[in-house]
Amino acid sequence: MRWPDEPIDLSDRATFERVVRAHGERLRQFCFRRLGSWEAAEDAVAATFLQAWRHRKRVQLTQRTAPRWLLTVALNESRGSYRRDRRSAAAEARQPSSVEPVDHATSIEERLDDERRMQAILVEVAKLRPEEQDVLALVVFAEQSYEDAAEILGVPIGTVRSRLARARQRLAAAERGDTGQPGGAR
Amino acid sequence: MSEQLFGGLPPLPPARPMTEDDWARLEARIDVAIETHERSRRRRLVLATAAALLVLAVAVAATWWHSTRPTAGSASVVSVACASAASTTAPVTAMLASDGSDPRSQCEREWRTVGVGGAPGPPPAQLVACSHEVDETPVVLVVPDATAGTCARLGLAELPADFADSNERFAALREAIGTFDPQGGGPCVPYRDVRRTTEDALERLGYDGWEVARGGATIVDDSTCVDYWVADRVQHVVFLYGPGIDATGGP
After folding, report:
1. How many domains does chain B have?
2. Which of A110, A139, A176 minimises the CB distance to B1?
3. Tens digits of per-residue pLDDT, A21-66?
4. A1-87 belongs to which CATH class?
5. Domain end: B132, B161, B190, which one?
6. Distance, in angstroms, between B27 CA and closest chain A CA?
7. Does A57 touch chain B (CB under 8 A)?
8. Residue A70 with chain B: CB contacts under 8 Å
């Protein structure tokens, strides 16, 4: 027996705010891992929920479909930003970020350290082909199953597996210091 | 799974639970994104409506205008449309709110500063302003042409004799009400003050029978900051809008 899947009316502001509270944290974490910056991540999450607001009458979300739909939008929103930012990712990885996430529970130092560590990872991830980056982001950063990643990307599950395998090989080659053409394998 | 894939890479930074500060910041960003989008949408809707009225006027009422046009268009001008060619089918490439000056001068400035149908540059040697009206909403169409009888050839009317006066009157109304930018750092001018100023200006400038009204639900109370206003020539109402999202669905 399955529980009924309830539709979500995003036109209702209270409902919209509940959806933000229900999914905002997970999306923020995902976007941070895509972008390596807390500020850019929050911008991408805001853009994601703006899309949800804009499409509230055309897209009928339910309790079950909302997480995947929002993640798909966040993937796209963070993709554009990531491409813009990755040119300077290497430089940023060596420098403190200008982000100002001030709060009492998590220190500024911890957050800056998060950013430095994430940007160092993203420098390596940037050597992958874009479609490999998307698969890696969904499976590793967002911890989605292969099946869910395949559905979000609209590709067969075998493609997800092969892209991940190629990504793993390419990252391992980079780790060994191979100078073969990045992105050459298909 | 991540350890396996990232065997040669550093581990991911730990997940950071969001604090109330984080939530407040994130929700504020979302609110700003939505409000900016909604404001932009409302403005596009106003311009799109004006453009649609223009197309309707040119395409449908041209013949009617040619034969039965009224002689005096005493209503004020809402929009000046600058077209890149003297044709009723040429795309209108700039739709401007009249500033009270000669519409041809306004379009000349548009040609120089922004460009009409192309890059900015010198305007055509001669621009012709024609008048038409849809549902009592006047629009001035400005087209390039160096020959006489352009408006008649397009099936449109010449500007009425009292055009300059009514245009200046509307510019005076526009100046009296003013412009607002409470979210862009401008001062908050509350609804109650703008309403009073607008009513005084309407009376002083001879807009008999006109009223001032709240624009949808964006004006919450008398102290709500006014964001912008729209003159509805059909209903003879000046609508005042606040910066919030109009839950009633539009301007």
Report:
1. 2
2. A139
3. 999 999 999 999 999 999 899 999 999 999 999 888 888 888 888 9
4. mainly alpha
5. B161
6. 8
7. no
8. none
Structure tokens that stand for B72 in this block: 């005096």
Q: Is 60 exceeded by the pLDDT of residue A81?
A: no
For the beta carbon of residue B14, count every other beta carbon within 10 angstroms: 9
Boundaries of every domain in chain A: 1-87, 127-177
Identify which of A21, A42, A175 has the shortest CB distance to residue B8: A175
CA–CA gap between residue A78 and residue A89 (Å, rounded) = 14
Whether residue B87 lies inside any domain: the answer is yes
Quick one: pLDDT band at residue B91, thresholds 50, 70, 90? low
- In chain B, residues 14-43 whose CB comes closer than 8 Å to chain A: 14-19, 21-23, 25-27, 29-30, 32-34, 37
Q: Per CATH, which fold does A127-177 belong to?
A: Arc Repressor Mutant, subunit A (1.10.10)
Please check whether residue B32 lies inside any domain of the structure.
Answer: no
Instruction: Quote the CA–CA distance of B183 and B178 in Å, as a whole number.
Output: 16
- Interface confidence, given as ipTM, is 0.77
Domain co-membership, B151 together with B221: no
A120's tokens:
């160092």
CA proximity to B29, closest of A45, A103, A21, A67: A45
pLDDT in tens, B96-138: 777 778 889 989 998 888 888 788 889 998 999 988 664 455 6
- Which residues are registered as beta bridge partners of B97? B79
Residue from A54, A99, A170 whose CB has the most chain B CBs within 10 Å, to mutate: A54
d(CA A145, CA B69): 69
Residues of B whose CB is below 8 A from A21:
23
- Structural tokens at position A5: 């899947």
Which residues of chain A does B9 touch, with a Cβ-Cβ cutoff of 8 Å?
Answer: 121, 124, 171, 175
Q: Which residue of A has its CA nearest to B41?
A: A54
For residues B232 and B135, membership in a common domain is answered with no
Identify whether residues B115 and B188 lie together within a single domain.
no
**B89 and B153, same domain (yes or no):** yes
Domain of residue B141: give its range: 53-161
Residues B131, B59, single domain; the answer is yes
Asked which of B136, B161, B186 is the last residue of a domain, the reply is: B161
Check residue B244 and give its pLDDT.
65
Q: What is the reported pLDDT for B76? A: 45
**Nearest CA distance, A164 vs chain B (angstrom):** 8
Report the mean per-residue pLDDT for chain A.
79
B226: left (phi over 0), alpha (psi -120 to 50) or beta: beta
Report yes or no on B214 lying in a domain.
Answer: yes
Six-digit token pair at A56? 């509230």
CA-based nearest distance A140→chain B, Å: 5
Residue B226 in domain: yes
pTM of the model: 0.49
Q: Which of A50-59, A177-186, B38-47: highest mean pLDDT?
A: A50-59
